[in-house]
Amino acid sequence: MSAPARVLLAAFETGTELAEVARALRDEGLEVIYAGVLGSAAEVLSAAEQEDPALVAVSPADPDGAIAAAGVEVVAFRTVQEGVDRVKMATRPRSRPRR
């Protein structure tokens, strides 16, 4: 059995329901690294370097694409359901192409 995908969860503004997203993702079997509200893309990148997640999920968005430009897979979300759905889609095993 493979280890669950590690997801770094962060927000750039208060009011985002990060705890609710984290709980839902854990219920789906993902390993969630809860970074909380961070002030900049540089802080998110620093946390990603330390934690080595498979994916970074940020709310409300990746400012200027700075996180993705650094080579980190990132999904952005605005609502709890959108966050859960996008992370699940990005972390599900990909099927092999047919030959």
User: What is the fold-level CATH name, i.e. the topology?
Assistant: Rossmann fold
CATH architecture: 3-Layer(aba) Sandwich
The overall pLDDT, averaged over residues, is: 89
Element-level helix/strand string: EHEHEHEH
Provide the structure class.
alpha/beta
Please summarize the sheet with the most strands.
4 strands, parallel
- The gyration radius over C-alpha positions equals 13 Å
Oligomer: single chain
Overall geometry: globular
Write a structural description.
- 30% of the residues are buried.
- The protein is globular, with a radius of gyration of 13 Å.
- Strand 3, helix 3 and strand 4 form a beta-alpha-beta unit.
- The longest helix has 12 residues.
- It has a 4-stranded parallel beta sheet, with helices on both faces.
- Helices cover 37% and strands 21% of the residues.
- It has one domain: Rossmann fold.
- The chain is of the alpha/beta class and 99 residues long.
